[in-house]
Write a structure and sequence with these properties.
31% helix; five-stranded parallel beta sheet; 13 helices; nine-stranded mixed beta sheet; single chain; alpha/beta
Length: 509
């Protein structure tokens, strides 16, 4: 049995980031909700408690039996997890007078293996409304911050640690070192989990889950659905039938180009032009959530109709990845706020006739790319920028029609090709153009114009959870702006989006 790090989820939106940091260290991890926790299997070598939106002061606060973990394997508890340990062992946890969110300064009080090579006064990231005011007996403080006395503690003579801050997030400068120290120097993992081992494990799981059932795979042309399809193909072979739908909201020439790439890979793919159906359903619809759900429902309608031409199809496969899940619905039943619906997560109709299989729903985008590389998938697909499932519909502010889509396709085509021409495409994580709803006054020749505004967006990121705008060169932006205005009728103004995520999202709707 492979060595396993068990992550107990109390409802934090950061839980999968913990798993991500663990996987980056080539350690296999598994997330389970707190209410599904049972005695540890023999291959579990360590446990991490996640944070939570809950409070230990709540009447029915989420909890687990600590006796099932203590003195059996090392335990690292984060934020709420640290408060839970302190509370259950007799410490004092109270609501903070001032909630603490954001950057703080770590002050290491005692040399400990958990903080090996961690810089004193390094930045840590706080996100909590309660705080630990008093520790249980037989425990002591090992780190503070400028605002919190008990920022880190340990139970005497046990490998049990509590951190009030979040080492899993990017903004904790030495967070990866702390997690590495816990995994390698305290739990003594051997680091034998890789993309290749994920592939082997996932193919085995898919074979067990699907058996001899037939699967209909919804391909989007992006890296996520392609990697998912290749994994499924290796697991079930000819029982996989793929369909790539032209919803009328793809990039210019994308339908033909992507079908050609899929044929090179060797997937059994049927192309369906349903563009008129989608555009008709979207007519006069302006609300972003409604657009997303209409598109999601129509995708399922198309797949459902297509499946009736196939015998005994039981499953619909999708390339859902974890950021889609986080933003759409709560994970493992935990309470988390929905940011927006993704057509392949929150927008599925309840009466769908096919069961869902999502091989990648626990991975982030960069992890999917690594798996794709390990599967030897064409780099043209692996290196493609992310593209939203609802397509250009959510890059058109307000209602959608064929004319607006055509305008935006031309603008996007110029923008993406210029990025490639300037060797900037691979320096950008995601780029696209947005068609604004309003028109502005302009001058062309000697005449007045009243035409559309387009915004360009280019961001850097690793996982889509956070993103920053890319500082594209001024000469590049000047060239793109001139080319768009000169070549695309109905556009007389180009702007560049310099918003980060958060507070903005990558897409505009």
């Amino acid at each position: 049995m492979k060595e396993l790090l068990l992550i107990i989820d109390f409802g934090s939106q950061y839980t999968q980031l913990i798993a991500r940091r663990v996987r980056e260290l080539n350690v296999c991890s598994e997330i389970i909700p707190f209410n599904k926790f049972s005695p540890l299997a023999d291959n579990v070598k360590g446990v991490i408690f996640s944070g939570s939106p809950s409070s230990v002061k709540d009447q029915d606060y989420p909890s687990v039996k600590l006796d099932l973990i203590r003195n059996k394997v090392p335990l690292l508890s984060l934020c709420y997890g640290a408060q839970l340990i302190a509370h259950k062992l007799g410490g004092n946890v109270q609501s903070s007078t001032n909630r603490e969110y954001g950057r703080s300064d770590l002050i290491i009080k005692e040399s400990d293996i958990l903080f090996k090579d961690v810089s004193n006064h390094s930045q840590v990231w706080m996100s909590h409304g309660d705080t630990i005011l008093g520790l249980p007996n037989n425990s002591h403080v090992i780190a503070s911050t400028t605002d919190v006395d008990i920022a880190a503690f340990t139970i005497d003579n046990e490998d049990v640690y509590g951190l009030q801050f979040h080492p899993e997030v990017y903004h904790t400068t030495d967070g990866s070192k702390i997690i590495s120290n816990f995994l390698l120097n305290i739990c003594h993992f051997s680091q034998n989990w890789t993309s290749e081992s994920f592939i082997d494990k996932k193919i085995s799981e898919l074979k067990e889950q699907l058996g001899n059932d037939k699967v209909l795979m919804a391909l989007s042309g992006g890296v996520d659905s392609t990697v998912a399809a290749v994994l499924l193909h290796q697991a079930i072979g000819s029982n996989l039938n793929c369909v790539f739908v032209d919803n009328g909201l793809l990039r210019k020439d994308e339908f033909k180009e992507v079908l050609s790439l899929y044929n090179e890979i060797g997937l059994n793919v049927k192309g369906i032009d349903a563009s008129n159906d989608f555009l008709n359903k979207l007519a006069n619809i302006s609300d972003p959530e409604t657009k997303r759900k209409i598109i999601g429902a129509e995708f399922i309608n198309v797949f459902d109709k297509f499946s009736k031409n196939l015998e005994d199809v039981v499953w619909l496969a999708q390339g859902t990845i974890y950021p889609d899940v986080i933003e759409s619905v709560s994970v493992n039943g935990a309470a988390s706020e929905t940011i927006k619906s993704h057509h392949n997560v929150g927008g599925l109709p309840k009466n769908m006739n096919l069961k869902i299989v999502e091989p990648l729903k626990e991975l982030f985008k960069d992890e999917v790319r690594r798996v794709g590389s390990a599967l030897s998938i064409n780099k043209k697909i692996i290196q493609r920028h992310p593209f939203p499932g609802p397509g250009l519909a959510i890059r058109i502010m307000g209602s959608v029609n064929k004319e607006k889509v055509s305008i935006l396709q031309e603008v996007d085509y110029i923008f993406i090709n210029c990025l490639k021409e300037y060797n900037l495409y691979n320096e950008v994580w995601q780029a696209g153009a947005i068609l604004l709803g309003d028109s502005t006054v302009g001058v062309m020749g000697d005449g007045r114009t009243y035409e559309k505004v387009v915004a360009l967006r280019a961001v850097s990121s690793t996982d889509g959870m956070t993103a920053d705008w890319v500082h594209l060169p001024y000469d590049f932006l000047s060239k793109v702006s001139n080319e768009i205005i000169n070549k695309v009728r109905c556009v007389n103004r180009v702007v560049y989006d310099i918003s980060s995520k958060p507070p903005a999202t990558i897409e505009w709707e």
